[in-house]
Write a structure and sequence with these properties.
single chain, five-stranded parallel beta sheet, 29% helix, globular
Length: 188
């Protein structure tokens, strides 16, 4: 997929997730979450080709501009959208699958200082609410919803709803698909 096709796909994903988006030009010019993802693609390519210092410099400059820190070593899929992005941190060994959405203040962080896999894996179609912390080399199953300010330190099966500190996972019920976002108990 070419660069322009990928940018168009990202803009469509942003418009699908954000009802406040009024047009492609507005999204292209003013959505810092998209700007951070686009910059990530540049610094991830540098990182992958062995230009580690240059990659870190670009990622830190992007952090300065957007308030979003994505380590160049992280692996991020397609149609990834960060809404209101400020304060998002994604660690070096984090893996984010396609169609994932994060709100502001989310941390995909580690719990140890060791080497190897230290950050979470977020599977396809997960939504993570504002201020949530996903910590350690855990897996959040496809289609799950993580509530605002939840602290997740254990694996969650697909289609889970995770709320609380520490987060408790429960299977998403029939009424939870998308409507959980409107329920004040699980507000994201």
């Amino acid at each position: 997929m070419g660069v322009l096709s990928r940018i168009r796909e990202d803009i469509r994903a942003a418009r699908a997730h954000d009802p406040a988006a009024r047009g492609n030009a507005e999204v292209f010019l003013s959505y810092s979450g998209l700007h951070a993802v686009w910059a990530y693609r540049v610094h991830h390519r540098l990182w992958s080709r062995g230009f580690k210092t240059a990659a870190r410099f670009v990622s830190q400059f992007t952090r300065f501009l957007t308030g979003i820190e994505i380590h160049p070593g992280a692996r991020i899929g397609r149609r990834f959208f960060i809404d209101h992005g400020m304060g998002v941190v994604i660690g070096e060994t984090a893996e984010v699958d396609d169609d994932v959405m994060l709100y502001h203040g989310v941390t995909l962080g580690g719990k140890s200082r060791g080497t190897g896999k230290r950050h979470p894996t977020i599977e396809r179609g997960v939504t993570i609410g504002a201020g949530a912390k996903i910590l350690g080399p855990i897996v959040i199953g496809a289609g799950s919803i993580v509530g605002a300010n939840a602290v997740v330190t254990k694996d969650a099966p697909p289609q889970s709803l995770l709320v609380g500190v520490p987060a408790i996972a429960r299977p998403r019920g029939e009424g939870d698909h998308g409507l959980a976002l409107l329920d004040p108990e699980y507000q994201i």
